[in-house]
Each structure stands twice: as C-alpha cells, then as structure tokens.
Design goal:
The complex is a heterodimer of chains A (about 400) and B (about 400). With about 400 residues, chain A is of the alpha/beta class. Helices cover about 30% and strands about 20% of the residues of chain A. Chain A is built from 11 helices and 14 strands. With about 400 residues, chain B is of the alpha/beta class. Classes of the chains: A alpha/beta (about 400), B alpha/beta (about 400).
C-alpha cells in the first residue's frame, strides 16, 4: 500500500497564498485518484497575510486514514519527500513568523528527497543559494518567473499545474502522471492547464546535489528560553542605542542596534541598490523606512543594512532622485555586504556594479498593480516561450 | 464626615465614620494614596466614584481621576497607569465589568497589580441592579485574585491588603474586591478608619522595577507571540498565583500587628465552627442572615456553624479541605449559577466538592442556589438550608441535585 509521503510548499505571504493552496490541494486530489487519502494545510503560525513573508503549505498523503492521523494535529512534518520553493529567493533560507532563526530551504528534505524550485536561473545558481546538507538530495528547476499575485486576485499563469506535473515526475511514489492530469482536469476544467502540466513533466530536469555543494554558512539559530528564564509581564527589553559607523579609518554617522534574533531579510524579494554619487542627503529613505534599515554613513549618506531590510520598496518610492535607490531582484545578490563599504573601497568599480545591477535585472514585482496586468504578462510569457502553451 | 477625614490625617488614632462598603473602598484609596482612578458610571460601582470625586473636590485626596467613555477604556487606562508604575484603582459592576473583559483578561499576563472593586450585580438582560456573583466569577480563571467581603470595615481593610498583595514582586497580579450590590454598596455602617501613618507602615511604595514602562527603562509590552511562547507565559502567571497564598498570609500577619484586626485564616472566616456538626458555606453579605440563624439554632441546641470564603482565588483548598472534612455535612450557598455544571450547582459548590475529593473524609455536600438578582436570603430560607443539611448529615447523603431556595415555583 505504500507509505506516507510529505510535500512542503514554501511560498511568499499574500503574493503566493492562493498558488500554494492550489498546489497542496492538487497533490491531495491527485493522490485520492490513486486510492490514497491526504490532508492539505498551511502552517498556522506563519501568519501569511503579510506581503512576502515566507510561509508554508503542506500536503500529506498516506495509504489509509490511520497512517494519515500520525501526520494530523501537527504544524509540520519532521521531514519531507518533496520541498517546493515557488520563488527562488526563498532558497537563501527562510524565517517566518512561526519560528526563530533561519531555516534552510532544504532543511526538511530527506535523503534522496527532492527540492523543486521555480526560477529562470540555472540549477547551479540555485544550488549556491541553498545551505549544504550532509547527504545527497535532488534538485528540479521549473523555468518560470515568480508567480506573484494579491490576496484577492490570482494570476492564472499555470505555475500551479506546472509544479504539479513536475511532482509526478520527481516523486512517482506520490502520484502517477495520469492521476495528476485527471485531477487537474477535474479541478480546473481546463485542457490548457492539463497541457501545461504534461509539458512540465516532460521538460523539467533533475540533478543531484552533493553534500559538498551549496552555501557552507551555518544559519543563525535561536534557543527558546524556559518560563523561569523569561522576563515576566510579557515584556521585551528595548533595543540599546546604536553607535557611530566605523569603516576603515572613518568614524561617524550612526548605526542603530538591531534585533539579533529576528532579522526579517528572508521576506525580501527585491533589494534596494543605492547610488551614493546621486544621493542628495535628503534623509527621506532613512526616515520613511518602516524597519530602520539604513545606517547613516560618516558622509551622511544612507547605507542599507541587508540583514534588516524586508524589501518593501518604500525607500525607492520616496527617493526624489532618479535611479538613486533602485529595487533589484534579490536573486542577483549572493551576500549582505555593505554597499557603502564597497563604494568607499573602489568608487569606479561600484559605479560599474550599480550600472550592471540596473541593466540586467530580470522581471520582479510585488504582484497585482492594475486590471489587465496579468493578461498582458501571460501573453508576453507565451510569446517569449515561442508559443509554448498555445492552443487557446 | 469632612471633619472626620481631616482629623484622620492629623491624628495617629483610628476615627469612626459612617460609610458604605463602596465609600470604605474610596476612603482606602485615599489612605493608600492611589495615583490614578478610572470611572464610568454604573450601579452600584458609581457609589465609589461619587465618594472619590468628593474627596478630591474637597482637597482631601490627590489623584488623577479619569472618567472614561466606557468600561473597556476604564480598565485599559488603569492597566496602562499600572504599567508606568502608578498605583491604580478601577472597578465596575455587572455588564460593565463584562464590557471591559478584553482588558480584564490580559491584565494578569502583563502582571499589572491594579485593584478593582466589583459592585456585584446581576448581568443584564433583563436590566437588574441586585447582587449576583456571576459578574466577578466570569473572570475567575484568568489570573485575577478574587476576594469577597461582607462588611464596610472589611471592604476598607481588604483594599489595604489587596494593594499589599497585588504589588508584592512575587505576585504582581490584579485583585478584584467583590462587594455585594445594595447590602454593602448602599448601606452605611460604622467603620474604623485607620490613620495614614499606620497604612504607610503596612504598605510600601509600588516599585515596578525592571518591568516599569519608562523612557529610562525602554521595554516593549505584549508583542505578538505564537505557540512557542504562550505556554511559558501562562506558566509564569500560574506561578505568581501559586505565590499569592504565602504573600496573603504575610500581609495578614502584618495587618493584625499594625491594625489590631484579623484573627484566624485570611482566606476564610469561621463562625461557631469549633464544635459544629454541620455548617453552611458562602461568600459575601450572605453572612448576615446566616449568622443570625446560627445564633438562633445554637440557642435551640443545634451544633451549627458558618464558613465564609473570603479569597476565592487563590482558593485555599488545603485549609478549607482540612476544615470542611471535619463536619458531618456541608451546605454550600451560591449567590451565582453555573448552568449545566455538575449537579447544576453554583460555582462555589463545585469548588468545595473538588476540594473535598482530595480528603480522606468526604462529608455529604448539599448545594443551594439562593439570593439571585439581589433577592433577600431570608431567615426562613437559611433555616431551611440548615435543615436540609442536617438531614444530609443524618442520612449520610445529600440531595444529588442542587436546590433553589427562595424561588417561586
């Protein structure tokens, strides 16, 4: 009769809430066709009604109800057969409202399990984002831009069924392709979506990730205190005052103290890039940032703290100078180095880096902006894919 | 009265005043120098408000007196005052207390030691003023300390005790002082008002230490938490409640030494229990008719007594268990109800049953509901309850179901 199979879908709050739900539902409905039972649920503590916050859905499929009950009334399984990241920037690790510390994207993937990522990046680049694991696992990349929509609208760009089609390939134990396609047909009543799922099944490639590949950093962790050690009265100590910045020989400006336990950066999908040559020192980015992410440099310009920034884009919106603060796809970065320190070390090289960042970035937005937007984007995607998914 | 009040502040001797239970609490707020009082009118709590307003207007009392736009705000204001280190008093009655429930529910976890007077009143609808204990008891499980008083003197004394216990660092929990509407809040009796100097000796200043909300001590209070934290927070509140009995006993000893009042246990009062065969148990002003009947029955040769529970939370299950297991039968009189509870009893009766379960000797417990909505518990009513309890003692079994005494059928 088989065993219990666990699928985890890591997604971004609000933007991908419906997408994640569709995927987890699709897994259970398809498995049902194979005579299995299952549950689809969201990790309750994630509080996914916040823009971009990393959150999780799960689909658990078991041979019978008794086996399934072992996986019920819990917030998440201990390990997964498949973990799906529907945004490649999640591969840098996630910190949600539900836990403390940075959880590697592949943390729950069991030996020989598979990580499925939607991305336009090559698989090797994705591997570099992911933290290392002590055993080999598999990676499948579905070529796609992040499918971001809103809380009340859904971008029906077939990302849901492309992921489902891929699942039939990477985890045949979970569900056959035939059952999956039949379930998609029944759930959406759309032949085009069935075709998209089949193409994903046919085209998605899988590679093995070895233990010596990936990000070698140890993710920051947090130990929960016991009740005798916790402060009483539901109180939390305030942040201490900050200190001047010290960079090389220069001392000055102000760097606030920040919460070392809850950093927020894994919510970010776009990162502000600051062109210090253009800055007019108007202070607006610094004042308006809701999270106090900017350090004041000794020159009274404003340097992003990439640990604290959740990528909301307010700084870029309020900056009065063209191309002084620009939001750039987070996937283009591999570290949290201070931009101002790079600028001071070599202004010319920094200027070239900024130009490159602004020119070569792939499409990224915070979702739904105007009526008709999704139709436009999907048409463009189809044209770019040489008519793939046509037939409408 | 004004002359009395002025004299009290001047002299190191007790003065006598003719005041109601609510007014006694008001006088106590002056004696403990409460910083912030919040008010919103509702019977019978308004009798406290009126008296405090007069004390402030007459220049006898110096305090922030804030009339809120609702009970919810009233309790929130008192909470926040307590958080910044101010000694605060609040209170309400019946549905007013319930309207503040959101604030009431979170006060214990935040460890804010405010004191509230509950002028016990039936919950509307139908609109009613009379006493019923369900208003205060609605908050019985949340970490508030609950104490019931039966005289204006005890209302004053208990207010002093309440601040001492609430503000003890080991406790830091709010205290609700329940005073029966009408019988306590609207009848004046002679009360000994201690001099301020005695009170100062009894009650140290409120020191919130590292939990004080102040620019010199920057903290965040009550951030959002998830399942990783809440159980530990609940356990902390639980621990504070576990510390409360010891703190109450200490305060009671000091109170007796300074004020010369307060015999026996702080948690309950015994009346003719030494050789009693059967007793009634109850809270609040029920004590008046019960005491009368105890004396009458004693004169007739019956060995009866009365146990009045003062502190309902913390519930002195050790002391009450040891005491009550001695008797041949117990009758518990609830001025409240708990619809659908075991045996359809009131709240107190089932607490007593649970307490006795841990005892080797478990006398029969007859449970009565009486005096709801402020109805008088009459002398014949009390005689009837003693009689039913006596029969339980003789037969060795109490009626299984709760009996409503004084209800028209």
């Amino acid at each position: 009769m088989g065993r219990t199979v666990s699928v985890e879908i890591v997604y971004r709050g609000i933007f991908q809430k419906t997408l994640a739900k569709n995927i987890s539902r699709g897994v259970v409905l398809a498995a049902r066709r194979g005579g299995k039972v299952g549950i689809a649920f969201g990790r309750y503590g994630d509080s996914p009604e916040r823009n971009g916050v990393p959150a999780k859905n799960f689909a658990i499929v078991a041979p019978d109800q008794d086996e399934l009950e072992l996986s019920m009334a819990q917030y998440e399984p201990a390990e997964t057969d498949v973990t799906i990241a529907v945004d490649d920037t999640l591969c840098k690790g996630v910190e949600s409202w539900a836990w403390y510390g940075l959880q590697p994207i592949n943390q729950k993937v069991r030996p020989d399990g598979v990580l499925v990522v939607t991305s336009t990046l090559p698989a090797d680049a994705i591997v570099e984002f992911c933290h290392r694991k002590p055993f080999p696992y598999r990676l499948a990349v579905i070529p796609a831009i992040p499918s971001f929509s809103g809380l009340w609208v859904y971008k029906n760009d077939h990302t849901d069924v492309r992921v489902l089609g891929t699942l039939a390939k990477v985890c045949p134990e979970l569900v056959s392709l035939e059952a999956m396609l039949a379930a998609i047909k029944e759930e959406w009543k759309d032949d085009l979506k069935v075709t998209s799922a089949r193409r994903a099944y046919e085209q998605t490639e899988v590679r093995v990730v070895r233990p010596d590949e990936g990000n070698p950093e140890v993710p920051y962790t947090f130990t929960l205190p016991g009740w005798t050690a916790m402060r009483e009265g539901v109180t939390v100590e305030g942040m201490p005052l900050g200190a001047p910045m010290r960079v090389g020989g220069e001392v000055g400006g102000y760097r606030p103290a920040r919460n070392p336990y809850f950093k927020k950066f894994s919510t970010r999908t776009m990162r502000p890039v600051v062109d210090f040559e253009k800055c007019v020192k108007c202070t607006l980015c610094w004042l308006q940032c809701p999270d106090g992410c900017f350090d004041v440099t000794p020159e009274q310009t404003y340097d992003l703290n990439a640990d604290a920034c959740c990528g909301c884009g307010v700084c870029a919106a309020v900056c009065p100078v063209d191309d002084c603060i620009t939001m750039v796809n987070e996937a283009a970065f591999t570290d949290h180095r201070s931009q101002w320190e790079r600028y001071k070390a070599d202004p010319a090289a920094y200027a070239a880096w900024v130009r490159g960042m602004l020119a070569g970035q792939s499409e990224r937005s915070h979702g739904f902006r105007y009526r008709g937007q999704y139709q436009e984007q999907i048409a463009k995607l189809r044209a770019g894919a040489g008519g793939e998914g046509g037939g409408e | 009265m004004d002359a009395d009040a002025a004299a009290v502040q001047a002299a190191e001797v007790e003065q006598e005043a003719l005041i109601s239970g609510s007014e006694a609490v008001a006088v106590a707020t002056k004696l403990v120098d409460v910083d912030v009082l919040t008010a919103y009118p509702i019977r019978p709590y308004d009798t406290l408000m009126q008296y405090v307003a007069k004390q402030i207007a007459d220049g006898e009392q110096d305090a922030e007196y804030i009339v809120a736009e609702s009970e919810h705000s009233q309790f929130e204001i008192a909470k926040h005052a307590s958080a910044v280190g101010a000694r605060a008093l609040c209170g309400s009655s019946g549905v007013g207390w319930c309207y503040a429930f959101e604030a009431i529910a979170v006060t214990p976890a935040l460890r804010l030691p405010l004191v509230a007077m509950v002028g016990n009143r039936a919950l509307d609808d139908p609109g009613a003023f009379g006493t019923e204990h369900n208003d205060a008891l609605a908050a019985r499980d949340l970490g508030w300390l609950h104490v019931w008083v039966d005289t204006a003197q005890e209302a004053l004394d208990t207010t002093l005790l309440a601040y001492r216990v609430a503000e003890d660092r080991r406790v830091y929990l709010p205290v609700a002082i329940s005073t029966d509407g009408a019988f306590l809040t609207h009848s004046q009796s002679l009360v000994r008002v201690p001099p301020r100097a005695w009170v100062d000796r009894f009650l140290p200043p409120y020191d919130r230490g590292k939990l004080v909300l102040h620019p010199d001590n920057p903290i965040t209070i009550a951030p959002q938490v998830n399942e990783d934290w809440l159980m530990e927070i609940r356990r902390q509140t639980d621990e504070a409640m576990r510390q409360a009995p010891g703190v109450i006993e200490e305060a009671w000893r000091d109170f007796r030494a300074i004020f010369g009042r307060g015999d026996g246990s702080p948690f309950f009062e015994e009346y003719y229990t030494d050789d009693a065969e059967i007793v009634l148990v109850g809270m609040g002003t029920l004590s008046m008719p019960v005491r009368v009947v105890v004396r009458k029955l004693r004169a007739e040769g019956q060995k009866v007594g009365f146990v009045r529970v003062r502190w309902f939370r913390p519930f002195d299950y050790e002391g009450l268990g040891a005491l009550l297991s001695r008797f041949a039968a117990i009758g518990v009189v609830d001025r409240d109800f708990s619809m659908g509870s075991p045996f359809h009893s009131g709240v107190l009766a089932n607490e007593i049953r649970a307490t006795l379960y841990a005892q080797d000797r478990r006398p029969p417990v007859a449970s009565f509901i009486s005096g709801l909505g402020g109805r008088e518990v009459t002398i014949p009513n009390v005689r009837e309850m003693f009689e039913l309890t006596r029969r339980a003692a003789e037969s060795g079994a109490a009626p299984r179901d709760t009996l409503w005494i004084g209800v028209r059928s």
